[in-house]
């Protein structure tokens, strides 16, 4: 067994929900005769999802969604499996990255599964001949959903897409616990610095930012939150964190983590006031949150280590992790979210792909929520795997909750 197979086997044992879905897929073959195109982080947990879809009858073509997140041994292992074709490789050039996107699309997928909307963007802007054969898609991450909603608002999204990111079983676990734990793990593993006592600046207090702030606080960090939404800023304040602008936080922070999914969060305006030795990282999606290009152009010197680029400017040094890309996956030892978290997220993906395969052709273009009953079913499967039982409503309670005049 090669290293890629060993990684996949290790992950599979901690993914009981996806395993139960795979068993059903093997029996029912919901994707028989169908091609699925995917652009996700190609690592062991993703491989278990790919195997699940292929077990359901799909011909799967997959590439990466980030130039630094692919694990080459896992990609090689996937290519040894029947009905699976993987084009991803780590540290690919921009040209190679988009060439691999096109190779996935050359297979003429009926269903797309994206993490960042690169497949859907390419279909709508450069491969429009594929639109007639697309049934629908699924989107994994916040950044992709933002882009899709912008397309839908302009009337330019021409097939239905399930917003996997926006359902509770994704947001409550993947975004909060997955991003929080995996980002801090990647930072600590890459730098070997102590979190306790450090001023750790979290940019953005959505589900990812909140999870990161809570986990960092639990490790003893002195957490500072920056926000643009007054409600989230107030929430961070009442959760016990310092809240201020990035202009103010730049001078105080020892470690910075962006989680906004937006561009230009930490820029050349902030670098001059930072401490020497400040560590910058991005836990959003695309490498646009940190102005790395400015550092590359203006630094007096650059020293490169595995996963760390150190820029000397005006006598002080600023460290950027993973080239400003997704820190929990793009650092050399980045493993992404914990396995059990991705068991839930990829269970949502698998069932959403089945759902869109069945009814996508009946839906107009747009962004659609994951059906609530599907989300609850995944939670129930996970509780069963954990051996946890919960209460159920009595008939009297159901009647009370659905009535408007009882008790008045």
TrEMBL record:
Pfam families: AdoHcyase (PF05221), AdoHcyase_NAD (PF00670). GO terms for cellular component: cytosol. Binds 1 NAD(+) per subunit. PROSITE patterns: ADOHCYASE_1 (PS00738), ADOHCYASE_2 (PS00739). GO terms for biological process: one-carbon metabolic process; S-adenosylmethionine cycle. Its cofactor is NAD(+). Its EC number is 3.13.2.1. It is an enzyme of class 3 (hydrolase). NAD(+) binds at residues 141-143, 206-211, 227, 283-285, 328, 337. Residues 175-334 form the S-adenosyl-L-homocysteine hydrolase NAD binding domain. GO terms for molecular function: adenosylhomocysteinase activity. Keywords: Hydrolase, NAD, One-carbon metabolism. Belongs to the adenosylhomocysteinase family. This is Adenosylhomocysteinase. It comes from Methanoculleus taiwanensis.
């Amino acid at each position: 067994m090669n290293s890629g197979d060993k990684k996949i086997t290790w992950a599979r044992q901690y993914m009981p929900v996806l395993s139960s879905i795979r068993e059903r897929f093997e029996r029912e073959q919901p994707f028989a005769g169908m091609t699925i195109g995917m652009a996700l982080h190609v690592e062991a947990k993703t491989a278990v999802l790919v195997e699940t879809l292929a077990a359901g009858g799909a011909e799967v073509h997959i590439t990466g969604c980030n130039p630094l997140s692919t694990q080459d041994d896992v990609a090689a292992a996937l290519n040894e499996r029947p009905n699976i074709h993987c084009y991803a490789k780590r540290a690919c050039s921009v040209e190679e990255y988009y060439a691999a996107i096109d190779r996935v699309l050359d297979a003429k997928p009926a269903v797309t599964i994206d993490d960042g909307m690169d497949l859907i963007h390419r279909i709508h802007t450069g491969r429009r001949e594929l639109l007639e054969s697309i049934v629908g898609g699924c989107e994994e991450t916040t950044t992709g959903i933002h882009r899709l909603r912008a397309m839908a608002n302009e009337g330019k999204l021409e097939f239905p897409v399930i917003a996997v990111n926006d359902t509770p079983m994704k947001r409550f676990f993947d975004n909060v616990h997955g991003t929080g734990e995996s980002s801090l793990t990647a930072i600590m593993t890459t730098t070997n610095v102590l979190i306790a006592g450090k001023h750790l600046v979290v940019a953005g207090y959505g589900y990812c930012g909140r999870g990161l702030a809570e986990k960092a606080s639990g490790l003893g960090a002195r957490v500072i939150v920056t926000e643009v939404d007054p409600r989230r800023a107030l929430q961070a304040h009442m959760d016990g964190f310092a809240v201020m602008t990035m202009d103010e936080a730049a001078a105080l922070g020892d470690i910075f983590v962006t989680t906004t999914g937006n561009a230009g969060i930490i820029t050349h305006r902030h670098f001059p006031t930072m401490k020497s030795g400040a560590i910058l990282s991005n836990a959003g999606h695309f490498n646009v949150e940190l102005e790395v290009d400015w550092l590359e152009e203006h630094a007096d010197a650059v020293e490169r280590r595995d996963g760390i680029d150190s820029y000397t400017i005006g006598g002080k040094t600023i460290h950027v992790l993973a080239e400003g890309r997704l820190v929990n996956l793009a650092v050399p030892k980045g493993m992404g979210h914990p396995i059990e978290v991705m068991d839930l997220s990829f269970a949502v993906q698998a069932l959403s792909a089945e759902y869109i395969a069945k009814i996508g052709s009946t839906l107009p273009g747009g962004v659609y929520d994951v059906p609530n009953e599907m989300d609850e079913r995944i939670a129930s499967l996970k509780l069963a795997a954990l051996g946890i039982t919960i209460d159920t409503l009595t008939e009297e309670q159901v009647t009370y909750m659905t009535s408007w005049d009882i008790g008045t």
